[in-house]
Here is the input.
Amino acid sequence: MMRFSTLLKHPSDWMTGHDAETSVVVTSRVRLARNLKCVPFPGWAKKGRRGEVFSHLKGLLQELPVMSEGFAHELSDLDSLQKQVLVERHLISREQAARSEGSGSVVNRKQTLSLMINEEDHLRIQAIRPSLQLHEAYELALSVDKFLEDKIDYAFHPKWGFLTACPTNLGTGMRASSMLHLPGLVLSDQIGQVLKGIGKLGLAVRGLYGEGTESLGNLYQISNQSTLGESETQILSRLTKVIGDVARYELQARAKLLEDDPLMVQDHIGRATGILTFARIITSKEALTHLSMLRLGSDLGILPESLLEICDRLFMETQPAHLQWRAGRKLPPDIRDAMRAQMIREQLQPALPAAINISDSEK
Amino acid sequence: MKCDLCEEKATVFYTQVTNGKMKKTALCESCAQKQGVTDPNGLLMADQLMGMPLAQKVAETPDFLKEGAAAVCPSCQFSLEDYRKVGRLGCGDCYLAFGAEIEQRLSTLHKGLEHSGRAPSGLLELELKRSLIDRLNNDLEKAIASEDYEAAATIRDELQLATKNLSEEESQL
Ligand SMILES: [Zn+2]
Ligand SMILES: [Zn+2]
Here is the structure.
């Protein structure tokens, strides 16, 4: 079985190989909520019962070839930092991190499949693919679902579909979402309108980081709200179409910005490059904001293409728990900010043009 | 900043767009958890959050709509009161026990009221067999009513076979 450290040393399968395909739609995720028949939902089951469900499901999941040599742990075996790292990687939910006994995480080696046992539901099957590949992510999650349905009885009702702890997930139990990088729509002040438009279609949008309308790093998540009354394919097709449209608007907005005000675009990207290359102290908020501009610069051909993947990795690895895990201990915020700045400088240096890559005099 | 639902300090913030309206919400940790907001993939129930806490909202439900809703789920002992408080259920059977009350909430959450997605493979066949039996029973009544005894005999044979099939299948589950 894979150790926690091994899991973290390897980048997720969907985090590598980033190119034009992932320039707007970074990732696609599908999650299926499933419960066992005649067993109380995790939030209401007694501790012993939850433990039984965990062992049973974990055992079955490990029989799956795709899960072999994966990661499988009860959350109570992990310390708070490790749990936080899994949350930052989107492998478990914040809600699950707060649960303890009988709740666990099973992740395959490539980190394309992440199964949460005894989160709000007995099982949540989550599959993740790079770029806009919702149908493919669904197929992947479905393969696990089909494997399990022959071995266990799901809580299912012909009229209501898959029965879930919360009625918001009832029916297909499916939540599909894509993460989009939308700096062009933000810089051109069109984001509000686009978000409103998406909302009118009955889909949910939210900023991935940050509060209020601002989304740090210009990263947004678009997902379906309704899980009952439509088939999985209908939901996925509708979502794919809307996300494809949004991606097109984003590319148009970028092209128009470059045409109308190239200096403004270059200034944003240049300033972000300057700060990230020279800062010695940087908060995660500031890092997200500037990394987003670097990513844009890479997409637009202003900065090297290889930066795209570096930015995506830094988005994740500069988050507080990842930094502390790397340091091997808990750190106060000011130390983290210094470590974050150093890490960013080190990772960016090989990829940035020599002209702006002024060497570190103190070294 | 205070939590939108109680007096605690808000620590969870997010924006959601529903039906064309942008809504900013600030919640404390425990309210956020109750609303399922902390799950990055969870659904944010804008309609629920935009108005008032769920408990209050449900309390205003007219009495006649609550008929058929049990006070406690016979399978898991989870109570309707708990559901009103936390918006979650105790087990799959709770849906049957509290069906009347859950159903009125479904229309505000979903596109439809009936599942049209996939079913676990075994269950789907089971459903088809059940509906076949219903249909054969109907046909049989009609045949008898119209005194077509020859047809009735054929249908009765089919019905016997289908029933035997179904009970074998059910005993395997
Ligand atoms: Zn609160
Ligand atoms: Zn129940």
